[in-house]
Specification:
By secondary structure, this protein is an all-alpha fold. The protein has 13 helices and no strands. The longest helix is centred in the middle third of the chain and has 30 residues, at 151-180. The protein is globular and about 75 Å long.
């Protein structure tokens, strides 16, 4: 029956992904051979919705984690930080809900998200991410509605807050594991540091949002320490990601030239400037710069992956490097 179906309009997205026809037969011999100058991989089919999901999900997860940590402080301190704790949880609720909307929009149909819940596969970062998101958002909502209420509802909110913190930490970092688990050379080669980068960037985004909307001095000290530490870790992790990928020069090329490099450098500069303003106690300026830097970082990683996947030589250089590297022995 499918052979009788008529195509009513061309798929423009697939046309963009399709390789152009050969105008001449490529050279197959030489010092750096490839498969007829054709990419070994197809570029990821993810749209711009996905880096936005990375950004929102990372910020939401880090905010839920900070909110759970604030529940551990003493009763006296909790009274001072109550509004900050509530803001953390509602940042997590809004961020995870909006992020899920972008994710489902990229999938095309909500049912595709639900299909991934039919199985539980710990070896699949995508499947685990679906379960993490499905647990983080509801537990965050339950916390936002019940935390700090008297009696049994407050106890339920307290427990839900800790649960949301655990799943929030996973939500902030699992996307780094997800991209590292692909065959895209630039992502795969930096797999040891990519989850750290995603988690720290999510913490920067969460702290920056809080800097924009919270002005109590006691809470500002918390967000200043949390955000400054996250910014330092993000800058260090971004350096390590670039260094790891650049061990094979062709693999690390997206960090050095082209649009992906421009986005990458801009993200680093914005985060560094955000750190300076945060230490100078210019919270709102630091917040604006931190949000912009974290968002640009996700688009830089997304663009670098597209460039790396369509590079005919990146995968070949990576495989040759691994083939000629000394075999590792177990001690």
């Amino acid at each position: 029956m499918s052979a009788q179906q008529a195509i009513t309009s061309p798929d423009e997205h697939l046309q963009q992904l399709a390789q152009p026809e050969w105008e001449r037969l490529p050279e197959t011999a030489g010092p750096d051979p490839t498969y007829y100058d054709r990419p070994m991989l197809k570029r990821p089919v993810w749209s711009a919705d996905i880096p936005i999901y990375y950004f929102l999900g990372g910020a939401a997860g880090a905010a839920l984690t900070l909110g759970a940590a604030l529940q551990l402080v003493s009763r006296r301190k909790r009274a001072e930080l109550r509004r900050l704790s509530e803001l953390c949880h509602w940042t997590g609720i809004v961020g995870s809900t909006a992020g899920a909307a972008f994710l489902i929009h990229d999938l095309g149909r909500p049912s595709r998200f639900l299909y991934m819940l039919r199985v539980f596969r710990p070896t699949s970062p995508m499947n685990m991410g679906t379960w993490i998101l499905s647990a983080a958002a509801p537990s965050g909502i339950l916390t936002g509605l019940l935390l700090n209420r008297p009696g049994l509802p407050g106890a339920v909110g307290e427990i839900a807050g800790y649960i949301s913190g655990v799943f929030g930490a996973a939500l902030a970092g699992y996307t780094g594991v997800l991209v590292s688990n692909t065959a895209v050379p630039v992502w795969n080669e930096s797999r040891r540091w990519m989850p750290v980068l995603f988690a720290s960037s999510g913490a920067v985004a969460a702290a920056s949002f809080l800097d924009l909307f919270y002005d109590n001095e006691a809470g500002r000290r918390v967000t200043r320490v949390f955000g400054s530490a996250a910014r330092v870790v993000e800058l260090a992790a971004s350096h390590q990601v670039e260094q790891s990928a650049s061990r094979i020069p062709r693999v690390g090329a997206p960090f050095r030239r082209g649009r992906s490099a421009l986005l990458w450098r801009a993200a680093e500069a914005l985060t560094a400037a955000s750190l300076v303003f945060s230490l100078s106690r210019k919270a709102r300026v630091a917040g604006v710069l931190g949000v912009a830097g974290s968002l640009l970082l996700r688009f830089a990683i997304h663009e670098a992956g597209n460039v790396s996947a369509t590079d005919p030589r990146a995968s070949f250089h990576q495989q040759r490097q691994r083939a000629t590297a000394p075999a590792r022995t177990l001690s």
